[in-house]
Automatic annotation (TrEMBL):
Organismal lineage: Eukaryota, Fungi, Dikarya, Basidiomycota, Agaricomycotina
One Pfam family from the record: F-box
Species, as recorded: Coprinellus micaceus (Glistening ink-cap mushroom)
Protein's name in the database: F-box domain-containing protein
Residue ranges of domain F-box in the record: 20-66
Source superkingdom: Eukaryota
């Protein structure tokens, strides 16, 4: 009797366009370099396409780049998560997806409750705060009094524990000789497709070293 024909073998690339199929035929190193330019949601989606994609995207450096991509896209201060070398692969993936997951949550109208609270004080307690600003990312906070600028480092977001940050003292304090300090809003306007937000402290000294104008925290886009 003639043998029955063997059942067709399922192709793991079924449904992929010819371009994508050819892409996965590239050497693993080159494939990883190409896929590293994708955003975190796309990386997560494509990693399930086949074994070649999964192995390429599972490399640690790919997700370090994904974190940087997420910070640039969401205008989050990259040092919020520094040092990246201290994070494992799972943490890198979670951080890279945070802006996307938060945006999805807000789009559904889901409220956000504070995970923790902290009481921030300057070392010498001069005056009351006239302005407080959270640097995008939530790790660094700037507090302004009439005579001081204080900077707090609360640590990476994953380390926020109420019992550990309550009453935390500033990491850096700048005392002013005279004049009123004004904290302007931190915002950066997009320039092309590559932008980054960060704070810059500027002042204008005159003879004798005193300030002849207010001190502002500004943002720059590049």
């Amino acid at each position: 009797m003639p043998k029955s024909p063997a059942p067709p073998i399922s192709d793991h690339r079924e449904g992929l366009s010819p371009t994508m199929t050819n892409l996965f035929d590239l050497p693993a190193e080159l494939l990883a370099l190409i896929l590293a330019h994708l955003g975190p949601p796309d990386l997560t989606h494509i990693s399930g396409a086949n074994k070649a994609a999964y192995e390429a995207i599972s490399q640690r450096w790919v997700w370090e780049e994904a974190v940087r991509h997420a910070c640039r896209s969401a205008q989050v201060f990259e040092s919020t998560f520094a040092p990246l070398s201290a994070l494992d692969l799972v943490s890198l993936k979670q951080i890279a997806m945070k802006p996307t997951l938060l945006a999805r949550k807000l789009s559904r109208g889901v409220g956000i409750s504070p995970a923790s609270e902290a009481v921030l004080q300057c070392d010498n307690g001069i005056g009351n705060f006239i302005g407080v600003c959270v640097v995008p990312g939530g790790r660094y906070i700037l507090g302004i009094t009439h005579r001081e600028i204080c900077i707090w480092d609360l640590g990476p977001p994953s380390s926020f524990v109420p019992s550990e940050i309550a009453g935390v003292t500033p990491r850096c304090t700048l005392e002013l000789e005279e004049g009123l300090v004004n904290l302007g809003p931190i915002e950066a306007f997009p320039h092309g497709t590559d932008s980054i937000r960060f704070a810059v402290l500027t002042h204008h000294p005159r003879t004798g070293g005193a300030f002849n104008s207010c001190v502002r925290i500004r943002a720059v886009t590049r």
